[in-house]
Amino acid sequence: MTKSKEHESSSRFILEPIPLDLKKKKMDRSPANHHQREVDESRDGNGVGSDKKILHVFFPYDMEVETLIRLPGKSLMRFLCVSKTWSSLIRSQRFVASYYAAKPPRFTVTFTNGVLCEPKRLFIFSGEEEVTSSSSSLVANLDMTIPSVTLNHSGFKYSSVNGFMAVNDGLKFIICNPTTGQVITFHCKATDTCLGYDPVGDQFKALTLLTSRYAHDPSFMVHEVKRLGRGGRVVSRTQITSPPYHPVTRGRCINGFIYYAASVPAETPVFVCFDVRYETILSFIPTPREVLFWQALTSLIDYKGKLAVVVPICQGRGSSFDRFNLWILEDVTKQEWSKQTFELPLSLPFNIGMGKRMISQGTNKAGEIIFSPATLPDRAQPFYVFYFNPVTNNMRRVRIHGVADTEDFLSRYGLTGICAASFSPHHVDSIAFL
Questions:
Q1: How far is residue 84's CA from residue 91's CA, in Å, rounded to a whole number?
Q2: Domain architecture of the chain: domains with CATH
Q3: What is the pLDDT along the chain (434 residues), one digit of tens a residue?
Q4: Does the N terminus or the C terminus of the chain have fewer Cβ atoms within 10 A?
Q5: CA-to-CA distance for 63 and 321, rounded, in angstroms?
Q6: H helices present in 292-429, as ranges
Q7: CA-CA-CA-CA dihedral for 212, 215, 220, 223, to nearest 10
Q8: Helix H or strand E segment including 79
């Protein structure tokens, strides 16, 4: 073997990732360089000669971003430790926004083991939405659990806010990101708090109603707006006031506005509209009484980017329903509502006392209106949701595998009673950190 061939056979090649800070490190990527270069390290750190060669392969920035953006969020969280450059890239606002936009919507199932059970714990599951509208089963995986959370059944309604989820636990307000595992808890001055997101300023804010809902004839209402920063700390607090009203439902954030049902003096039903960006009560939207027929049991949904309410038309004593009205706020400025009535192929339970109530908390990408249980039973049973297509009037039952449907799961986490549950059909993974 010649000397040159012997030297070549003993060479070691190492692939290294491209430096990602392009502002600091400009690289020549002309075809002549073939996106790689060889460094002949003729001496090691002790000054001893070495025949080792290192082959540095530089991947174009766009290719590296395209590769990382395809990975699950939990994998990216592990990659934060690979290098400072990868950590900077993954945490950059540009990459976070691109990741959120590229990911398809998922569904989440959340429930708590209630007030009377020990240990108290909040469970968050998620899974991929169906590719076709004919799926009969989906799989949910347990993303995270949060200990020491006590929630009552009536107030347990979740929705996804730009990849984050939030819930009131008395005076505690809990915000979590199932993708990153981040959990933030801070204390509020009152129990009525909801999470909002300003898509223009990329800013999360929490709105708290300080005036008690039990106050008699207040002359005005006082609210506190908390602007949230890194680490979940409160960057600023602002107090705003509005004319008096009595809140009826929890808030829901849709396209930069928080909506919740209320009644103003003379028992007139309205929806309060809070502008997250400008931190002001934008308006009281007059609402037909039928929209809030079920009062606190009313479920607000995001229907094609608009506020909507599904109102079940119950049979007999209200134990079930086979029809419902869909009320849609067509124009916020003109305060115009539309109404559509749909008939279901089969009846769904609406028995509040027995914990078998089916409610709707949204639609999927295909526009199907989804009905899900408000509670889980006290024994292992399959978890079913119903998908109704308002165009074809067809409905299908879909089983969600993995949601407390085995005796092993129930015994492992001490689930011995009825659990308050919530199904959110339009959650998108986010790798953002508060």
A1: 10
A2: 3-99 (no CATH), 103-427 (2.120.10.30)
A3: 444 444 433 333 333 444 444 444 444 444 434 334 344 444 454 545 555 555 555 667 778 788 889 899 989 999 888 888 888 889 998 899 999 999 888 999 998 875 555 557 889 999 998 766 667 899 999 999 998 776 665 545 677 899 999 988 888 899 999 999 999 998 999 988 999 999 999 999 999 999 987 777 789 999 999 999 877 788 999 999 999 999 999 899 999 999 999 999 878 999 999 999 999 999 999 999 999 988 888 889 999 999 999 999 987 766 899 999 999 999 999 999 999 999 999 999 987 665 678 999 899 988 999 999 988 887 888 999 999 999 999 999 999 999 989 999 888 887 877 788 889 888 999 999 98
A4: N
A5: 52
A6: 407-412
A7: 0
A8: helix 73-79
10 Å Cβ neighbour count for 72? 12
pTM of the predicted model, to two decimals?
0.82
Question: How many CB atoms sit inside 10 A of residue 213's CB?
Answer: 14
